[in-house]
Amino acid sequence: MFTQSLWNSFSGTTNFPQLTKDIQVDVAIVGGGITGISTAQLLAEAGFSVAVLEARKVGGGTTSHSTGNLYYNIDQVLSSLQSKYNNEIIRRVAGSRNSAVQLIEENVKKFQIDCDFKRVPSYLYSSNEENASKVDKEYETALEAGVKMEIASSEEIPFKMTRGVRVSGQAQFNSMRYVQGLANAIESESCKIYENTRVDEFEENDEGVTLSTTGGIVRAKYAVHATHTPKGVKVMFHTVLGPYREYGVAAKLSAGEYPEGIFWGYYGSGEKVSVRSYSRGEEKFIIAVGQPHKVGQAKDNSQHIEQLVTFLKDHFDIGEVTHRWGGQHYKPADKLPYIGPQSEGSRIYVATGFSTDGLTYGVLSGMIISDHIAGNENPYTEVYKASRFTPAKSAKEFLKENLNVATQFIKDLPFKGDEDELKFLKNGEGKIIEKDGHKVAASRSESGELNLHSAFCTHMYCVVHWNNAERTWDCPCHGSRFNQEGGVLEGPALEPLKKFNSSGEKS
Ligand SMILES: Cc1cc2nc3c(=O)[nH]c(=O)nc-3n(C[C@H](O)[C@H](O)[C@H](O)COP(=O)(O)OP(=O)(O)OC[C@H]3O[C@@H](n4cnc5c(N)ncnc54)[C@H](O)[C@@H]3O)c2cc1C
């Protein structure tokens, strides 16, 4: 299956240079997604010299695989915060997210970023009686916490609904165009952006942080992991993050209206599907997003995507399905992201655990981290403090995620075969095989080239699984993903999968 996000089709490309020498800056930002570019903007505006180091292309990570919705409520719903946090915190979460959406809107105007930003209402609804109480609970939570939410009428929601609520004044945009546009606008002598420049190592010392990259050494007073999840084994956040893969599809309507707004609906026994429309010029699309599963733990990834196509067919008169894609998100054990110094006094910052709300949380991270580095007060620093994690608060989720990880270490592999099975491996397929007593990740490219790699993830040595939709090797433990050539696509791993040569030796 060929996967490509809608945003990739409707964005240009950026042309920032590769780093080719050693440099010194105030702040090194690793990652050029919405988090990295927003942080760079605010630090440069505060007078710091900044270098953004992006392994591939600006905006090409998860930022270009989102739904492009901007809202102050959250995807796991506000009521999920109630068991852990008081009303004051719930209000602050909504307030902080609102200020991030406002900054995006201001930037769109200030830099004239052509990214189809518009204000729309956001809806949460139940499609059956079974799920109506979830919507009722969300409404009660919002009322109690003093977060604005209203009852929606069935005329507003283009789906069968038993209960619905509305949050007015939310927004949508093309996330990739926004980040590319912002990066082009902020690049300057004191805010350098480097593409195709991968950071391989972080070393914190008394003076600051030294980063080894594919293009040179970067010495900085501070460094920021704006990589969606922190890189490497030294940063221990992976024990409190659940990595999930979720999917999107875009299609043309043959007849009927494209709905305007953000629509989150509960279906069946509580699965959530998100629907929005996107138009640019004469082109219009309907998008459905959902079908999450733990990374590397789906039996058939393609099936998850096809379920979304079926959903669209069940609810709309669908013509061509134009785009199918997957994206990653990381659920924090105690429901809120981790933003700030990785530990008390550290010069290395993290911004992670965004769930599927990171277009807003990424911008908020930029606001919190830039204020912290500049020594300014920020009203939201404490809410998201990265060093806040306490096992007591997060115990249930923490244990659940880590039990799941432990199971992946000891589980026997599905689809395991022996060396003879290589003969039957078709183009575009992958399989774990046993070869000379080693576990090998074997895959064939579209053109038939056989790739053999050690099946052990280079992060913490779990065995990777084949993702048959995106044709990648995905690690079921902490979410690292690798392409067929073994290169790191995302997740905490820093090193590629080790090549397995013909004599059976790993190199
Ligand atoms: C299906 C789906 C739908 C979503 N929809 C929404 C939505 O509607 N609204 C919302 O708010 N959020 C949404 N999200 C979440 C949101 O997209 C992400 O949280 C957000 O884009 C994360 O941005 P980021 O900049 O932190 O990470 P990314 O965009 O992933 O950027 C990280 C960058 O770091 C780079 N990098 C990684 N390793 C290195 C290295 N070693 N050296 C240098 N660079 C490196 C990568 O190449 C990448 O460009 C969705 C997520 C998914 C999966």
TrEMBL record:
SUPFAM superfamilies in the cross-refs: FAD/NAD(P)-binding domain, ISP domain
The yes or no answer to whether the keyword ATP-binding is present is no
Q: What UniProt keywords are attached to this protein's entry? A: 2Fe-2S, Disulfide bond, Iron, Iron-sulfur, Metal-binding
For the Rieske domain, which residue ranges apply?
417-507
Instruction: Write out the GO cellular component annotations.
Output: cytoplasm; membrane
* Pfam families registered for this protein in UniProt: DAO (PF01266), Rieske (PF00355)
* Gene Ontology MF terms: 2 iron, 2 sulfur cluster binding; metal ion binding
InterPro entries on file: FAD-dep_OxRdtase, FAD/NAD-bd_sf, Rieske_2Fe-2S, Rieske_2Fe-2S_sf, Rieske_Fe-S_prot_C, YhfW_C
Its name, as the record gives it, is (2Fe-2S) ferredoxin
Identify the species of origin: Salinimicrobium marinum
**Classification lineage:** Bacteria, Pseudomonadati, Bacteroidota, Flavobacteriia, Flavobacteriales
